[in-house]
Amino acid sequence: MNEHLKINQAGVDLIKTAEGLHKKCGERHGETIVTTYLCPSDVLTIGYGTTGSKVRQGMVITESEAEDLLREDIEHFEAAVKKLVKVELNENEFSALVSFAYNCGEGALGSSTALKRLNTGDREGCVEALQWWNKGAHGVLPGLVKRRRLEGNLFLSKAISKKDNDELEQLPMSQKVKSSTATWIEIFPPEQPIDKPIIAAWKGSDEKPIDVLESNSTKELIKFLKFYGSSAKTFLIAPLTKKAPEVTTPRQEKPDSQETDVTSTDDIQSKIKNFPDQIKQAIQRQLDRSRQYVKGSQINLNTKTKFFSQRDNYTMPHRTCNSSSNAMYLDWLLRATGTSDGLKTDDEYLRTVLKYGDTIYHNAQTSAIKEYGFNTKWMTDEDLLFIEALVDCGFPVVVNILHRGTESAPRGGHIIMLIGRKQGKWIAHDPYGTLESNYSNTNGAYSRITESEFANRWQGGYRILA
């Protein structure tokens, strides 16, 4: 009955935050590497809490390999929860149980009082029993106390059922996309099971949310998500210390981020002050990483981007979007850091890429950019909120999209560079032309893509400094 369920982003974030990435021991080709360690229960562990026969004393892996192991482990525990639970779950309940099983093991969940209570329909009793699993080899651990509380809050947070989700998917696009498009949704779990959860719809880094709902009614939550949630790519659980916002009214659109000057650290902080703390920290890491390349005091985030068309490339003009987009990004890095005057053409960069592999491969792009002196990495975690913050601060971002077919049934595969946002639309340099003209217009400089269409076409990848 729960075969359709998969862990949601809130569940993945809970696991990654609770486990942490350990034990960091340096970098390899610009990417963090980690080695094995003993967890508080004296179990040999690596990465995001991976244990078992695949973990060998002294092994070393990269951060991306740790992500791969995390996904493999999550799939195992998703299957375990589906096998053990005999009642229908919503995705928050399912995700909370996957997090518990990931931490404590399939056997622990299978023999737990929490599972016995759940399978009789006692959901609050299940959450109560989950809280008992807070001890390591040497007694009660504050980290486990906090994790069990977060899992309990997630479990008790309202979520739409598969039936309700199917109803949402059947809505016409005109009803799903509203003028005040939300880009991220934040859930404030109740401190006590009797309290009402609060859900807020946000648009980028706006100071106030578009709307706030406090309710235990599933129907009200569905109505809220119908209006605001169809385009949101990011769903977050608010930290326990964060105060829930008051009900607000929609704000006017912000100006194009590329037309707004960023002249100081204070300017940057003001642009991201309303983003979640983890996004602020990620932006700060990008700024910190940029400093090693800067020839002046700091990276010049007011540096204008340069457009390269793939259509005039010396070879394979119809399949070199990846190289042309990354050439635009590299050119910006070279000029923004004061390293050089940038690239004259993208053919120069394309020749470098082909030394390392086919133009379609992201690792070939990473190696080519490194030859110019910059360590970067291709991310696949679908963090739309992070991309919004990067662009708002002045960083261009290379992303992958499905550029063919309709918005509701996209297909294909294409790489573009986002450079700004204005009036509910992304501004992009598309090396093949304009998506809105179905590429009959071959000049893709400063092309526009609505935020809702981008959310439907984006494949979840993007490039950042490593």
Quick overview of this protein structure:
With 466 residues, this protein is of the alpha+beta class.
Please outline the major beta sheet: 6 strands, antiparallel
As laid out across the biggest beta sheet, the strand order is 12-19-13-16-17-18
The number of strands is: 19
- Class per helix and strand makeup: alpha+beta
- Beta-strand percent range: 15-25%
Q: What is the count of DSSP helices, taking H or I runs of 4+ residues?
A: 17
- Top-tier CATH class of the largest domain: Alpha Beta
Kindly state the percentage of residues in helix.
25-40%
**How many individual domains?**
3
- The overall pLDDT average reads 84
Assigned CATH superfamily of the largest domain: Cysteine proteinases
Q: How would you describe the shape? A: globular
Contiguous low-pLDDT stretches (5 residues minimum) are 160-180, 248-263
Structural Rg: 23 Å
**CATH fold-level assignment of the largest domain:** Cathepsin B, Chain A
The rounded distance between the terminal residues' Cα atoms is: 42 Å
CATH architecture of the largest domain: Alpha-Beta Complex
Characteristic key phrases:
466 residues; alpha+beta; Lysozyme; 6-stranded antiparallel β-sheet; 4-stranded mixed β-sheet; 17 helices; 19 strands
